[in-house]
């Protein structure tokens, strides 16, 4: 992504905030200790990244509007010889400016942050926008919350949540963003083909998974969108199974839910195929029902439709299919064998934030992932594509990834002669 993209994101965000005078502060996040002197792999706060293109820890963005005047600052760590020797390079002011499009004279060192913040807040009345979204399971206090806590009760200062405004912008993707997801999907496609080519009874799930890892890195995607699900046989009936340590058995299916990440944009794809390259009649029957739901959802997806509506279509199709195949004995029983949503937003996060319940905006990217799970048969099937929502249709970004049962068998057979 060119720095013009991030400049544009900031401009659109600033225009969407309605306070007369405001200061908005966003933190990129810091390193988290894993054990001893090792840290977890650093993941930039995606709201921050959307507005800056910067992926370095401990960087702060400040946006100001006083009446008609807009200003922006980025605060980074200065060069540190020890850090450079032990850990590596940190962005210079020039590099941070080139990435983000913030003018180089407005790239400051972090020690100046408090002083600049005080200056910005000295105008009255003043609204301080902070990212105050609290994850349901968060077991930490974010930098945004800490700063809000510190500033609360100041005279003529109101504190407001920046999160909804950023998320609203993020939920409609530009063509450039959709292209990044598409490139991640293309790499994921090659990885999936490698999995189909190398599947064989006797391998551990993680051994087969390794072909995906190798392929996406070989093609230039260093990161995964999320931890790969490699679930064979009955493991596929656990939605988020990721132990990946069972042995592939002849006659079982394997379900892969995975994705490569390109410039932080995620692919999120599921494919299910037979370990030995041939579906059994029961596996095929279940597979075709899921595929039908997947196709119906795609045909109905477009701007203005809600995710709730797509879920209805999915439930309806799966119920019909399961009833007529005698796989369930009442419509209510569908809840036992299909127990998740068909769709979620995709973007910088695999489960990308999107305001709840809204009709899909043009530009949304969503998953299309119906599934059926029968522990009694040791069969779990999920087929997941990524859809780019346009005004009157959905562009299936993963249309080139094999999903017809016959084509999968043919493709796999070509490696097994
Ligand atoms: Mn998904």
Distinctive features:
2 domains; single chain; Creatine Amidinohydrolase, Chain A, domain 1; 3-stranded antiparallel sheet; 417 residues; alpha+beta
How would you portray this structure in words?
36% of the residues lie in helices and 20% in strands. It has 417 residues and is of the alpha+beta class. The protein folds into two domains: 3-170, Creatinase/prolidase N-terminal domain (Creatine Amidinohydrolase, Chain A, domain 1); 172-413, Creatinase/methionine aminopeptidase superfamily (Creatine Amidinohydrolase, Alpha-Beta Complex). The strands form six sheets. It has a six-stranded mixed β-sheet with strand order 6-5-4-1-7-8, sandwiched between helices. Strands 9-12-13 form a three-stranded antiparallel β-sheet. Strands 10-11-14 form a three-stranded antiparallel β-sheet. The longest helix is centred in the middle third of the chain and has 24 residues, at 175-198. The two termini are 44 Å apart. The structure holds manganese (II) ion. The site of manganese (II) ion (MN) has 5 residues, from loops.
Q: Helix and strand layout, with pairings?
A:
Blueprint: H1 3-16, E1 21-27, E2 33-35, E3 38-39, H2 46-52, E4 60-66, E5 69-76, H3 81-86, H4 93-100, E6 107-109, H5 113-121, E7 126-130, H6 143-151, E8 157-161, H7 163-171, H8 175-198, H9 205-218, E9 223-224, E10 229-232, E11 253-258, E12 260-262, E13 265-266, E14 269-274, H10 281-300, H11 307-324, H12 334-337, E15 365-368, E16 371-374, E17 379-382, E18 385-389, E19 394-396, H13 405-413
Parallel strand pairs: 1-7, 5-6, 7-8
Antiparallel strand pairs: 1-4, 2-3, 4-5, 9-12, 10-11, 11-14, 12-13, 15-18, 16-17, 18-19
Helix pairs in contact: 8-9, 10-11
Bound molecules: manganese (II) ion.
């Amino acid at each position: 992504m060119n720095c013009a993209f991030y400049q544009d994101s900031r401009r659109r965000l600033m225009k969407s905030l309605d306070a007369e005078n405001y200061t908005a502060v966003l933190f990129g996040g810091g390193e988290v200790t894993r054990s001893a002197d090792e840290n977890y792999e650093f993941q930039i706060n995606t709201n921050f990244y959307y507005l800056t293109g910067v992926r370095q820890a401990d960087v702060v963005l400040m946006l100001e509007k006083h009446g008609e005047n807009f200003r922006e600052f980025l605060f980074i760590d200065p060069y540190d010889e020890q850090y450079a020797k032990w850990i590596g390079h940190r962005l210079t002011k020039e590099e941070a400016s080139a990435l983000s499009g913030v003018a180089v004279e407005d790239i400051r060192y972090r020690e100046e942050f408090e002083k600049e913040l005080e200056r910005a807040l000295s105008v009255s009345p003043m609204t301080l926008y902070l990212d105050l979204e609290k994850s349901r399971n968060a077991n930490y206090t974010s930098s945004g919350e800490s700063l809000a806590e510190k500033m609360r009760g100041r005279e003529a200062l109101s504190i407001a949540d920046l999160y909804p405004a950023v998320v609203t912008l993020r939920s409609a993707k530009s063509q450039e963003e959709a292209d990044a997801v598409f490139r991640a999907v293309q790499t994921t496609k090659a990885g999936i083909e490698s999995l189909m080519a190398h599947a064989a009874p006797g391998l551990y799930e993680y051994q087969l998974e390794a072909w995906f890892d190798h392929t996406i890195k070989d093609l230039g995607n260093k990161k995964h969108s999320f931890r790969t699900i490699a679930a064979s046989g009955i493991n596929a009936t656990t939605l988020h199974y990721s132990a990946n340590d069972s042995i592939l058995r002849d006659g079982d299916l394997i379900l892969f839910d995975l994705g490569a990440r390109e410039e932080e944009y995620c692919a999120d794809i599921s494919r299910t195929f037979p370990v030995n390259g041939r579906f059994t009649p029961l596996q095929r029957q279940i597979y075709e029902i899921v595929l039908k739901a997947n196709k119906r959802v795609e045909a109905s997806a477009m701007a203005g439709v809600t995710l709730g509506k797509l879920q209805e279509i999915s439930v309806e199709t799966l119920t019909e299919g399961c009833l007529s195949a005698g796989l369930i004995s009442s419509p209510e029983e569908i809840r036992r064998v299909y127990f998740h949503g068909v769709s979620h937003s995709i973007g910088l996060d695999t489960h990308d934030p999107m305001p709840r319940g809204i009709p899909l905006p043009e530009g949304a990217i969503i998953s299309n992932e119906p599934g059926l799970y029968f522990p009694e048969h040791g069969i779990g099937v999920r087929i997941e594509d990524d859809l780019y929502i346009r005004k009157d249709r959905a562009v299936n970004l993963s249309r080139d990834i094999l999903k017809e049962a016959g084509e999968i068998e043919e493709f796999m057979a070509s490696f097994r002669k």
